[in-house]
Amino acid sequence: MSPIISVVNVSKTYASGFRALDCIDLDIQAGEIFALLGPNGAGKTTLIGLICGIVNLGEGRVTVAGHDIVGDYRAVREMIGLVPQELTTDAFETVWATVSFSRGLFGKRPAPAHIEKTLRALSLWDKKDSKIMTLSGGMKRRVMIAKALSHEPRVLFLDEPTAGVDVALRKDMWAMVRALRESGVTIVLTTHYIEEAEDMADRVGVISQGRIILVEDKVTLMRKLGKKQLILQLQSPLAQVPPDLAAYGLTLNADGTELTHVYDPRDAQGAVAALLDDLHRAGIRLKDLQTTQSSLEDIFVSLVKESR
């Protein structure tokens, strides 16, 4: 199946000489939730802006549903909805008017039922007649999302959509995102809340210094790179790790009461059993043990460090 978004050998260098994107290749599949992660200045917003037509293409080619973003830009714009980081709304308009107007900008006929459904889903219905200047920051963010959905796009870009907003909005928005995905809409999001990507995304891409350093199915990524830790609390303190246990790479804490073993979850059963047997033979008695596993945030931080 052809990807709905195809980015081929794309680079972007600004007039200042700053190279924001460097030879990007990326395919995004129809109907998936794709999380693009990266530190500040990595190129996330530039890449999204380029696909959406806000940033001029430098080198390479981008297509959306087979339409070239330069040669067939009108068709591309109609298929895309964008929720940018910045709050840019018509302060003196009502919520209903500005969302309806956004739909008209894409040549769509009026659809009051769709506008109502969108506003209700974002808990904006009771504010439909309020001027945007009277709304809180969180409510204005909801209006931005409603505007992006007004023309029923096939692809929705969410650029840091929950930065600085309340928990209620996040819950509303993620419920809507799941519903949109179920209806066939492709979602591309950037976020600093990596737990959101861990919870929501089907696939994850990591960008650093303008380069894509990894694209992977989230479950596969967690399985391949998500290390586990076995924390062993000792009955009696140790002065040092016995030489016979050196192969396990154990770390002893400062007061000698806790050992930590990092291992691959794919080899968990055999590796842990062997370690426990060797501890017993070495006369080391345990008071308690527990396991923890790397989060997507741990993996992300590790990948970015390795890329620099």
Strand and helix layout:
Layout: E1 5-13, E2 19-28, E3 33-37, H1 44-52, E4 59-64, E5 67-68, H2 73-79, E6 80-83, H3 95-105, H4 112-121, H5 137-149, E7 155-159, H6 167-182, E8 186-190, H7 194-200, E9 203-208, E10 211-217, H8 218-225, E11 228-234, E12 251-252, E13 258-263, H9 268-281, E14 286-293, H10 296-307
Parallel strand pairs: 3-8, 3-9, 6-7, 7-8
Antiparallel strand pairs: 1-2, 1-4, 4-5, 9-10, 11-13, 11-14, 12-13
Task: Write up this protein.
The structure is a single chain. The protein has a six-stranded mixed beta sheet with strand order 6-7-8-3-9-10, sandwiched between helices. It has two domains: 5-223, P-loop containing nucleotide triphosphate hydrolases (Rossmann fold); 227-296, Alpha-Beta Plaits (2-Layer Sandwich). The two termini are 34 Å apart. The chain is 35% helix and 27% strand. With 308 residues, the protein is an alpha/beta fold.
Under CATH, the topology of the largest domain can be stated as Rossmann fold
CATH architecture of the largest domain: 3-Layer(aba) Sandwich
User: What's the structural domain tally?
Assistant: 2
Distance between the termini: 34 Å
How many individual β-strands? 14
Number of helices: 10
